Amino acid sequence: MRLDQKVALVTGAARGLGRACAVALAAEGADVVLADVAGDVPGVPYPLGTASQLEHTARLCREHGVSVLVQQVDVRDRVRVDEVVAAAVERFGHLDVLINNAGIAAPSGRPVHEVTEADWSLMLDINLNGAWRMLSAVAPVMVAQRAGSIVNISSTAGLVGYRNFAGYVTAKHGLIGLTKAAALDLAPLKVRVNAVCPGSVRDSDWVEGRMLAAIADSLGIDAAEHEQIFAAEQPTNALVEPEDVAATTVWLASDESRQVTGSVVTVDGGFSTR
Amino acid sequence: MTTAAQGTHAIAVPVDPTAPLSLAPVWHETIPTVRADALAWRTRELRRPLAPGQVQRALLATYLDGADLILTTARSHLDSPALHALATAQPGLGLSGDVDLGPLPDGDIDAAVLAAVAVTLARYDGLTEVVLAVVGAALETVAFSIDDDRKVDELFARSVPDRRAAIVVQLDTGLAVGADYEPGMVTGFAVTVQVSRGPGDRLVARVRSSDAALAEMFARHLPTVFGQLRTARSVGDLQLLTAAEEAAVVELGAGRTLPSLRWATIPEAIAERTAEHPEAPAVSFESVTLSYRELDELSTRVCAGLQARGVARRARVGVCLPRSAELIAILLGILKAGAAYVPMDPDYPADRLHYTADDAELSAVVTTQSFPGHTTIHPHDLLGFTQKTPRPEFGAKADDPAYLIYTSGSTGRPKGVVVGHRSVLSLVEATRGFALGPGDTWTQFHSVAFDFSVWEIWGCLMTGGRLVVVSPLTARSPDEFFALLRNERVTVLNQTPTAFGQLAGDPGELDVRLVIFGGESLDPRLLLGWFDARPESVCRLVNMFGITETTVHVTAEELTRHSALTGSRAVGKPLPGWSVVVRDPAGRIVPIGVPGEIWVGGVGVSQGYYCRDELTAQRFVTDPTGQRYYRSGDLGRLLPDGRLEHLGRIDDQVSIRGHRVELGEISAVLLQDPQVTAAAVIVAGGRLLSFVVTSDDPLAIRRRAAGILPDYMLPATITRVDQLPLTTNGKLDVATLAALPRSAPVPVLAASDGPQQDAVQVICGVWSELLGEPVEPTDDFFELGGNSLLATKLGLALKAAGFPGLPVRELYRRPTPAGVAGYYGKGTADPC
Fold it and tell me: Which helix (H) or strand (E) holds A68?
């Protein structure tokens, strides 16, 4: 139990990578706070995680014998973000891990000069600012503890560019910058900040993933073939599994990575190496 | 062939399933002897790529002196008794350890072992013939015929070289094992049973299987059966389970004890609710609402009116009226008079109604229709009866019948199930966990002629809720029903899965807090969309398996997102007071996990069929301990956690959109037609299809059948054939029938507004083209072979036909042409 006695807060925990990370953390003994918008967001053209899915993630975590706190939160809402952190501390007394996973894949699919003001703002507000809000709400708690690990879920789109994806790419690149700056600010205070860059993650059944399908949809890639198309672009010829990313966040959350901060860990089957 | 110490030999075993089973060596190679890491090495060896030509390595034996991968065949090839044709199973595969079979029996030991294995296997799978592979003095495949009436001595093996076996028995009964080698699993078989000699001259068995639970079961039952071989009179007398095991199985399938009932009869329970809140609304229908007090007054009048007409306690009173709030008062009035109500749907053909009235020997029928030969009472005469009050001593007692509900009969005519007050009260007591109460609003969606309505009506009124009676037209319109649910703020919804799937609207807008599924089997995967819109924390979904003969419900299973994601088919544990036990056709209790017929016991078992003593004696049986059961005819099995899994029917009873239908009843009715010389009815794609041998026009036959059968039992198609195809066994060849081209279906929906029907028909046409077969407005897309890929194509096809887009999620919510038309908004198909 590599995370025994630890408390982890995971955003975007209803499904997908968030569910995978939450369950992986719980499997290592961490109590978890599961946060998700649990509802659709106007402007996002695909259905987001639901309350039922969030409850299911909670159930899966509880099967590992840990305690679970479920919170509904839109990461654009600073007030709610602060409330969630306060609720977590009230429930558990401390907070050791933050997985900044909440993020949207669309609205995307347009060249940079055709992206609307609204779409650009939405993408950055959720994917970049949301992570910053969470981080800055959690950091004081961790600083007071002189202990903590923050993991920002970026993307290979945070390392390289993609066509018709400018908002997403900018936000994910921004996350890397945030990671490094925050790492420097918090290192003397014994709080670590790292980023994970997943490549194309398979929409696996048990996590009810949708991200890859949403990306394919916005890029106009055939739904029936998008998995093969994405997989063929990875040097390993296979998609990344959610468990692969989850395992990385577990390592970064644990004390095994105590000297790792300001780092970027890429889990992409070699995609961004070329 | 070298000995073990010098090396090991690999022998290839052909695995062509059509080839006769034989382990004759095909090739021969020497593999270096084992190193330190024996298991890993052995594993690596097993996984070495195979030569082309379907050749498989068989890991057969391991030697304690260090050699291992010996693959060999007939014992004659071996130069020492220590070498055998079995392998050591890898850790993680099922091992049973040593099972003591007892002292060496007299006579042919090998034959006895084989007989015991055969009988055990037969009981697991309900087989009358068992095929075993035997590795003994020679290698052969043998078959046993298992006939319960024959003597045990008459169990003998006959050689069947052209068959394949799933189980192999290694007979080493002349050998002591353990000293020289560790026998293991023979690959290519599901189970390996190895029998040899143990210390003290006893027979020892080892069971290996990749299915650990199966190995464990086999290891448990084999000694039990083996030990009875000498003393059992017949094969049927052999008991698979020990008395303790049987008791454990019975215990597992028993619901908790039901606390004693507070009331003796339905009217008493409702009277208590009435005293508590007389002004609370009890029943609503359209603009009429009756408070509990008003319901009480009206039903008392009905009771007095019936008694004045001589209706005595335990009489049977028919009710043939359209739905209304007053109908509920009439039913309650009949119960107050101490009589049982016999509900009849006014939409049924007259023939069926009169048959029911005759068969049930009704004292009277409350109706506005005519029933020749029976006393009819106009409902107004009862509702307006203001003379003397009823005498309490004429009221019902707990075991008096409360209702007779008629169900489809396999020989052509329906039969009446008699259910007493006590059973209905038990049902409400057993469902306390649903926390039903005066704050709830229920719907009566189902006809009073179906026992789901018994739960809807009395479950509601006995717990103080408000019952909203739904008109048949509203029930048939997904949009209107959804609006009713929303507007009436319904909290408790009872539905068949089919009807639920057609609900048209955003579940987030509803107040429903409890949905109970019944009447047909549920595929929980279709619930994901509902959960997303209305999570379990806000609304409970419960799947209940039940039968009319055991008072509506038997088991309950709480549904969660987990059930939907895994597609679990479990129907849950029995309600408190009910019990289930699974038995084989001979009535023997089967082990946990083995399929068989579900027998239902407990307080819900009804009194039997009215005036059908023989049938009642057949289906309602008493076991040796005096417990009374109903043999359901449903296939199922008990899971280790005590939940029941429903596996279908044993016979020809089917569920059509929630209605219980005996195919035999339909074919019997068709055969009664003077123009029909042979008839067969099958179910395909959720529809009834009939095939007749006749010179007459099928439409004319259908018209005549419509005068006898209710609309849900009318076949969608009647196809003329020259003769009914039979299999080589002389049975009806259902597969051939299902593949025959059929005549076009006749629409069965009542005609509603024209534009709606037009849109529905166009949509049917689009579906029909996509799915390649005739489609009716109530056909389920997925039952007809649709999947999510075809769903996308359907959306495009509908767009091409001028309809708006159809999101796949919507198709999952309403998978019928009628439902899709409803989604488009009353079907006024404005092309976009």
Answer: strand A68-72
What pLDDT score was predicted for residue B394?
Answer: 57
CA-angle at B207, arms to B203 and B208, nearest 5°: 150
Q: Looking up tokens 């049917």, which residue turns up?
A: B764
Which contacts of B793-798 are long-range, i.e. CB under 8 A and separated by 24 or more positions?
B794/B766, B794/B767, B794/B770, B797/B766, B797/B769, B797/B770, B798/B763, B798/B766
**Residue A43 located in a structural domain:** yes
- Contact of B504 with B813, CB cutoff 8 Å: yes
User: Which residues on chain A are in Cβ contact (under 8 Å) with B565?
Assistant: 56, 205-206, 208
Q: Which CATH architecture has domain B754-823?
A: Orthogonal Bundle (1.10)
Which secondary structure element, helix H or strand E, spans residue B323, and what is its range? Answer: none
- Quick one: tokens of B252? 């597992």
- Count the domains in chain A: 1
CA-based max dimension of chain A: 50
Size of interface A-B (CB pairs under 8 A): 32
Confidence of residue B789 (pLDDT cuts 50, 70, 90): low
Tell me which DSSP letter residue A110 carries.
Answer: S
**What rounded mean pLDDT belongs to chain A?**
95
Domain B1-234 CATH assignment equals 2.60.40: no
- Record: contact B565-A55, CB cut-off 8 A: no
Residue A2, domain member (yes or no): no
Residue A13 has pLDDT above 70, yes or no: yes
Q: How close is the nearest chain A Cα to the Cα of B54, in Å?
A: 29
Match domain B572-648 to its CATH number in 2.30.38.10, 2.60.40.230, 3.40.640.10, 3.40.1080.10: 2.30.38.10
Relative orientation angle of helices A78-92 and A130-145, to the nearest 10 degrees: 30
Q: Which domain holds residue A112?
A: 7-273
In the CATH scheme, what is the code of domain B653-739?
3.30.300.30
Q: Is B572 left (phi over 0), alpha (psi -120 to 50) or beta?
A: left
- 8 Å CB contact of B792 and A223: yes
- What is the average per-residue pLDDT within B685-713? 86
**How is chain B split into domains, by residue range?**
1-234, 260-422, 572-648, 653-739, 754-823
Give the residue-averaged pLDDT of B332-350: 94
Banded model confidence at residue B335, pLDDT cuts 50, 70, 90 = very high
List CB contacts (< 8 A) between A59 and chain B.
560-562
Helix A130-145 and helix A166-186, axial crossing angle in degrees, nearest 10:
10
Taking the domain B260-422, which CATH number applies? 3.40.50.980
- What is the arithmetic mean of pLDDT over B382-397? 76
CATH value at residue A264? 3.40.50.720
Q: Do B535 and A51 touch (CB under 8 A)?
A: yes
